[in-house]
């Protein structure tokens, strides 16, 4: 506040006004009081019958908040969000009322002031998907100025960081659509208008606000003169679609492990995940969907053998026997587009999974529940030669060390056992073999390039799933593109389904269902004479489906749409198409390039382990997960993901090291110095510890400690004998950690020592003197005691003799 102005104002307040000025003020105050009293009486007559409330009752009459009209314009915060959607995406003409929900959130530090929510129906039917997209994106040019007001709802104040749900019932009489109106998609808009000090009569001056809406007055209220603070539009499907119209829909349903499974799944993780996957398979079979299966799921169940949960083994048997078309994703759903952007010449594959099968339980006769027993003549049970494409590709890629981050381990060196009666765990090829799947790939949405297609061609892939934004030249669901049989997933349908599954509020998820129904209604229609019917492909988002507790909401929405026909992918019409090249973000490419480099550095520590192949196999699985398509999503937090990767890799790069100590005191000519070794790797280490003196002041009788075992993530202490040659001084021990094969040194540390042998001699002398003094004092005390006892005895004897003589 300006101090000069404050002072002047204070002076004027303190100065006594003149009588004439005082009379004028009193007159003006009296007139203002009469006007204010009249306004209060009128406002009381208007507001008294309306009552209060924070949300609209189910009978469609507006509810008014107690604070409505009290908040000044300055108190309104622009930091807010509004979601709005119909409770049911399809509105029937004979329903008594139509229920909508709204979710108002305050996203700023200030409260969102009270106000009113105005609900209007946009004029005209939406004829195409482009106009629907423009409406949902808030393009004012597509809305039009003339909209029918359906109802007005008073909204109370929204606390900072909080939200409130509103339930709005619009009576059938207030809906201007009727049986004579064309079936199809219409837009309903919600505007939140904050209240001001002059809005005392807000929400009471137009038809429709009382929920009646009968006669010619229904929806005739003009748009509010107040500028809405928040606005949003939702589509509704009025009376379904035109008679006889339909759309052929092919679903692609991913079967993946949730994001919390960062490595191979444990038994507990399988127990928690399989029931959801089983329900997802039920829905996929009902809709004749195409399955996209993560090989990590298959290998993760098989790696436990008989120890895997019974439900998981039953699910795997059922998946192998299903008649649905299915293809295998890359292991851990790694993104082929990202690998092409990194310059890989081959698709990355696991090098082995022996670390995962090490604790499994396997029968004496290895069996595969997905196929009959191998006849042993080098052919498959069906008479074909060799293994499936997936298994052979995995084997070839595992042997190739030209790809950044690859090793030369085949991952199966430890499958041979010393004991003949110990069953061998399954090999990598056996874990990944899946004859039920065809060769396919699914790059991240919108990121496929020519390099991606070349990489997939080299891997023998014949089928693709691409987002519609990645394809040019056709609106069809299936195209022949660069030698690939390609399913074109509708990007708008996929985004609506993603919102339906993962929206931040119940209302936003309901809005996703409304958009999904509306887009499918727009896709339905009779084809022109002689033209093939155009279908749609809905590919459910992999990351969303993997992490969602249930995806039943998607199938429940689709089941309610009578004009949607489930269609097998092979029955969709095919056309020609060309690639519209996408792009992998430079930020993600750089992140992945650094992750590959760090993974190679961690691989170099493998010789320190008892089973070196475990680390390279484990790192390859982690690298494939890092390449996962879930991290290509627009809402993926790459900064947080990168930070987590760096922290994990930094911990692993510590490897096996001697823990440094500040100083160790040597007292005496011979000592045993404790050396603490820490293993930061996830598997048991087996090392050679080499010790050498730093100077001639000490000698180390034993300089090599072989086959020292250190458990994963644990510590081990080695006692090193040290002899000192001087009475005092400073020196150090040089300790090296080496592998057990060729004793290559991986780390070295210097442990400082302080020698204090002179003090030991002094202490021993003092202790000797003290011991001699104590011994002498004890002898003297004993002799003195004996003398005293002897004298006492002699004196007692003399007295006795004297008494006897008397």
UniProtKB/TrEMBL annotation:
Keywords, ordered alphabetically: Membrane, Transmembrane, Transmembrane helix
Pfam families, A to Z: DUF6049
Organism the protein comes from: Leucobacter soli
Coiled-coil residues: none
Annotated protein name in UniProt: Uncharacterized protein
Domain of life: Bacteria
Spans through the membrane: 761-780
Region annotated Disordered, chain positions: 1-25, 196-230, 355-428
Comp. bias (Acidic residues): 202-215, 392-402, 409-421
Biased segments, Low complexity type: 382-391
